[in-house]
UniProtKB/TrEMBL annotation:
InterPro entries: PPIase_dom_sf, PPIase_PpiC, PrsA_foldase, Trigger_fact/SurA_dom_sf. Keywords: Isomerase, Rotamase. Pfam families: Rotamase. It catalyses: [protein]-peptidylproline (omega=180) = [protein]-peptidylproline (omega=0). It comes from Modicisalibacter ilicicola DSM 19980. GO terms for molecular function: peptidyl-prolyl cis-trans isomerase activity. The keyword Cell membrane does not apply. Its EC number is 5.2.1.8. This is peptidylprolyl isomerase.
Length: 273
């Protein structure tokens, strides 16, 4: 979607109003909608909000034309049931057959793996991210504890009970089996690359420093097609739905006319959430 730049307008005073057919999209409505589209910049949030309102209005006008229930009620709240009824009636989404599914599976084997699994113990030496003095002190304590654990690894449970700030200390620091995404991102990234055994230095996270032992590591394993057939089918069906919805919205834009904003190849994003 692209808004017309102010500097490209005669006089450069203000952007033109956004209209769908004869209906104007009010600036106040865009401002209100922005809260539902968190973005890195205000301009990006405004863009997403305007696009969502344009898409909603296009669908509303089409529903009225077909004599279907309104997709937005008098208070401006989307009617999900009415939206579904309209799209079920209007969209033609081809179902992927087994041949297409197998072709996709063979072309993207990296998507269909059992993830790396790690059996982890840790000791958390707590320190806030902005407390440089405590973080430094805790790091040095961690180094000293690791030096002792390298010589006497069987003391890990004892050290967890004595030093860890994590509730897992009552279980000897046991976190159980972990896969990617089950810890805070900064620690998660580090864990994915560790071999079995006691790691030789403290690992940082927003909570402090972690002394980590990987007791068991099971590498990622490729899955057979039969195990992921439903997932492949769902992926291809979603892709087909996105394409059909994008073409449908661009056709509605052509039919009813949109001023002040142009839907682009991401037109489906306002609904595929």
């Amino acid at each position: 979607m692209q808004l017309i730049e102010v500097e490209n307008l005669p006089g450069g005073s203000a952007a033109p109003p956004i209209r769908v057919g004869d209906v104007a999209i009010a600036e106040e409505a865009i401002a209100q909608e922005m809260q539902y589209h968190p973005s890195e910049t205000v301009g990006e949030a405004q863009l997403k909000a305007a696009r969502a309102l344009v898409v909603r209005e296009l669908l509303s006008q089409r529903a009225v034309e077909l004599g279907l229930p309104p997709v937005v009620d008098a208070q401006g709240v989307e009617n999900d049931a009415a939206m579904t009824e309209l799209l079920d009636r209007e969209l033609e989404v081809p179902e992927p057959d087994e041949t297409a599914c197998k072709r996709f599976f063979e072309a993207h084997p990296e998507r269909f793996y059992d993830p790396v699994q790690l059996k982890v113990r840790h000791i958390l030496l707590a320190a806030a991210p902005d407390d440089a003095q405590t973080r430094d002190a805790q790091y040095h304590e961690g180094v000293e504890l690791l030096e002792e654990l390298t010589v006497v690894p069987e003391r890990f449970t004892e050290f967890a009970l004595r030093h860890s700030a994590c509730p897992s200390k009552d279980e000897g620091g046991e976190l159980g089996w972990l896969t990617a995404g089950q810890t805070v991102p900064e620690l998660d990234r580090a864990l994915q690359h560790l071999p079995e055994g006691l790691h030789d230095r403290p690992l940082a996270s927003r909570y402090g420093w972690h002394l980590v032992s990987i007791d068991k590591r099971v590498e990622a394993q490729p899955l057979p097609f039969e195990a992921v057939a439903d997932k492949v089918h769902h992926t291809l069906h979603e892709q087909a739905t996105r394409r059909a919805l994008r073409h449908y919205l661009l056709a509605l834009e052509e039919t009813y006319g949109v001023e002040g904003l142009a839907l682009d190849e991401d037109a489906d994003g306002a609904l595929m959430q």
